């Protein structure tokens, strides 16, 4: 467990010790360096940072001991990670990843990118940032500028290859016995008004719902998924705003907002999920409905000490879900096998939500639960239902 606390002048020696140990441990301390002078200079620089109102310098404490330094600047347009260094004693324990994950959540919440500079002679740090989804946006022969944003992350996840494979006409989630009842129920719930789909994707539901006679708009992050939608419906028929369903605004008022196929779980923090409910509410006219289709977390299938479950094990496809029950996170690993021993891996991270927590999020946004069924044909929802269709309603 780590904790961050604001640094003070009294931490200057500690921060110099962390920086010296970390830089030496990476083999990046210049040969023959005068250690005393180096530390004195670093301490002076730390004190300047403490006094600088444009940047936040923090001590990273692990097991109650100061063992790292973090410097972050926050502007209107970005979160800038100016520096993170951990003492070698606490490296490779997930502390750096946890700190960066928290900064990502902050950037996602503020709808700005998280930016950093990484020196070219620091391949370990570069590998970490690559793994955490940062992409190079500039730099020179000494350092790279890298950036992470929620939009870029979703575009990486839902890229052209995934988007091209997404539609399976007549099969699976595109089967008539899935889509028929979905469209009929949504059309009924729209009650003659306009519908807005959050995370509209390739238009699996929006296209047939629009053909059924309901005017549909959408919000979508992925350019590639939207490109596939545009092969089926133009922007006059189904207008789509590119953006985050937790924050983006679509012109007009709607009687129905819907978010299906478990996609609220693509928002990885409770805060963003609550924001998504609030965003649905502000698009709806009085009495409007927000419909969510979501699976019930499968924690009963998780034996103690085993952090993963196998969802499907077909010859050509294996689904493995790995859990972090503290964060309420599950990562679905989809392995698609072709001929031979090669496999393609597609990973989607989720924050799973219990029905009761979902109801509380709805309540925070001013909704009440109108109905909950096990599927689109209004089958009764029971303790054994694997998923649910929940209809939330604003007061008339
Ligand atoms: C499982 S697909 C569902 C697409 C469509 N709703 C359907 O039922 O087929 C998830 C979609 O959510 C989009 N998405 C994920 N997070 C998003 C966000 N925060 N805002 C907007 N779209 C998002 C992805 O780009 C992807 O197209």
From TrEMBL:
Keywords: Acyltransferase, Transferase. It holds the Pfam family Methyltransf_25. Residues 2-153 form the N-acetyltransferase domain. PROSITE patterns: GNAT (PS51186). Gene3D superfamilies: 3.40.630.30, Vaccinia Virus protein VP39. It comes from the Bacteria. The keyword Acyltransferase applies. CDD domains: AdoMet_MTases, NAT_SF. InterPro entries: Acyl_CoA_acyltransferase, Bact_Acetyltransf, GNAT_dom, Methyltransf_25, SAM-dependent_MTases_sf. This is GNAT family N-acetyltransferase. It comes from Kribbella speibonae.
């Amino acid at each position: 467990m780590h904790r961050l606390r604001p640094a003070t002048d009294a931490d200057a020696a500690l921060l110099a010790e962390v920086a010296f140990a970390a830089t030496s441990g990476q083999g990046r301390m210049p040969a023959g360096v005068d250690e005393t002078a180096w530390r004195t200079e670093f301490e002076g620089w730390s004190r300047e940072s403490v006094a600088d109102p444009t940047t936040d310098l923090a001590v990273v404490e692990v097991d109650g001991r100061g063992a790292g330094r973090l410097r972050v600047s926050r502007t209107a347009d970005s979160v800038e990670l100016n520096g993170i260094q951990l003492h070698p004693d606490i490296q490779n324990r997930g502390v750096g990843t946890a700190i960066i994950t928290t900064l990502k959540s902050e950037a996602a919440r503020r709808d700005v990118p998280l930016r950093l500079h990484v020196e070219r002679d620091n391949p370990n740090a570069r590998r970490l940032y690559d793994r955490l989804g940062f992409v190079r946006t500039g730099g020179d022969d000494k350092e790279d500028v890298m950036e992470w944003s929620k939009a870029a992350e979703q575009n990486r996840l839902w890229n052209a290859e995934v988007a091209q494979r997404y539609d399976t006409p007549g099969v699976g989630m595109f089967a008539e016995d899935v889509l028929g009842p979905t469209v009929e129920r949504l059309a009924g719930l729209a009650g003659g008004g306009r519908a807005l789909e959050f995370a509209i994707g390739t238009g699996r539901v929006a296209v047939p719902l629009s053909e059924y006679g309901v005017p549909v708009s959408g919000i979508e992050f992925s350019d590639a998924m939207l490109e596939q939608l545009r092969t089926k419906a133009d922007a006059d028929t189904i207008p789509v705003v590119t953006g985050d369903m937790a924050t983006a605004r679509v012109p007009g008022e709607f009687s129905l907002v819907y978010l299906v196929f478990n996609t609220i779980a693509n928002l990885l923090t409770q805060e963003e999920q609550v924001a998504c409910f609030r965003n649905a509410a502000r698009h709806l006219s009085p009495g409007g409905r927000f419909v969510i289709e979501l699976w019930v977390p499968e924690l009963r299938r998780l034996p103690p000490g085993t952090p993963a479950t196998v969802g499907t094990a077909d010859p050509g496809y294996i689904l493995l879900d790995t859990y972090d029950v503290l964060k309420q996170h599950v990562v679905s690993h989809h392995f698609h096998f072709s001929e031979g021993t090669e496999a393609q891996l597609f990973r989607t991270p989720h924050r799973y939500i219990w029905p009761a927590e979902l109801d509380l999020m709805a309540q925070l946004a001013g909704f009440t639960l109108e109905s909950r069924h096990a599927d689109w044909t209004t089958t009764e929802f029971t303790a054994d239902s694997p998923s649910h269709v929940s209809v939330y309603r604003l007061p008339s």
